[in-house]
Amino acid sequence: MYLIALCDDEEKELDKTEGMLEAYRSRQSGCDFQIERFEDADELLWKITEGECMPDLLLMDIFMQKKTGIEAARELRKMGNTCNIVFLTMSEEFALEAFRVEADQYLVKPVSEKELFPVLDRWLEDMEMKKKKYLILKTDGKIRRISLHEIIYFEAQKRKQCLYLADNTQLLLSMTMAKIYEMLSGHPEFVKVGASYIINLDHVNALNARELQMDNEKKIYLPRGAYQPLKEQYFDYYCE
User: Fold this and answer.
1) How does pLDDT run across 115-152, given as a tens digit for each residue?
2) Among 97, 111, 154, 208, fewest CB within 10 Å belongs to which?
């Protein structure tokens, strides 16, 4: 299920946008999303920062009293948030600024279903493609969406597993290695190394009969009999 956040300091505009979203959902079979409303950009930013709101799509006004939509979007991007943003606003004058904060679309009010629905179609198509390239994991009491490309390896650590990411972040997961490997099925870049590791072949720098070296300089020593099948998986993956 996706989360769509609405941010506008006018309640009637929130009502109108929510109504169009409900109309879209009723016409789009299999479309499943929740809607969360905000009348203040600072409240939206606080909830995102605290991990209480993780929107996949943000429909936001630009002209708001406390903080403009452009300012809010700029703060989101600075904190590394990459959610899709669509501005709904009364004027075209901030169109250039909107695209500088990597907004996906800029619609001038009054916005109609005819204008909004194609934007939602493209967003849903994009999300379905992205879904195949992310893992949704619970860590530290929060739900996180992790890009598969950013994952270097998983390591078994007693009752928990540790996930190592390309930015040097380490996350502890309360799930089995078997479950993690099941979630990664269909992604040939992820392979098991013994019982303790699941590695991403995209991050392997070197491989020999004794060890493999990941691109974060981590060395993983190979258990007996692991080298030959791992070498075959490695070359098969890159030949494909």
Assistant:
1) 999 999 999 988 877 666 888 888 877 888 888 988 99
2) 208
